[in-house]
Amino acid sequence: MTLPEYHSHRDFVSYSGVRLPLKLVNPLETGEVENRNTYFRGYYDEADRMVACEKRVYGEVEFCHRYEYHPSGALKSALIEMLGDEPRRIDYPEADE
Which of 16, 18, 28, 77 has the most CB atoms around it within 10 Å of its CB? Predict the structure, then answer.
């Protein structure tokens, strides 16, 4: 699983909702990751849009989402990779299309 170019990353306890991109919740401070078996890492571009997120379990990436955005900022596509499964891509048209 390769990540897109990103500007920064942040770690979280979980996510909420079912819509994409995932909404990561309960941020972890630097150093708190070392004491967790499971956590989520979000990767962000310069506009602070999440371009990828991973679920990490015991140091291994269990799943990874990669996101692309339309110029309007709306979600353009999501590539979902689950450990052991074929990647799945979902495309979203622009709202006015």
Answer: 28
Count CB atoms within 10 A of the CB of residue 1: 14
81: tokens are 């990779």
List Cα–Cα distances, 77 to 40, 80, 90, in angstroms: 20, 10, 5
List Cα–Cα distances, 95 to 11, 36, 61, 72, in angstroms: 31, 39, 33, 9
E strand or H helix at 40, and its extent? Answer: strand 38-44
The secondary structure of 6-19 as a DSSP string is: -SEEEEEEEEESSS
What average pLDDT score do residues 66-85 get? 94
Q: Which residue's structure tokens are 């972890």?
A: 28
The closest alpha carbon to 71, from 94, 90, 48, belongs to 94
Q: Which helix (H) or strand (E) holds 43?
A: strand 38-44
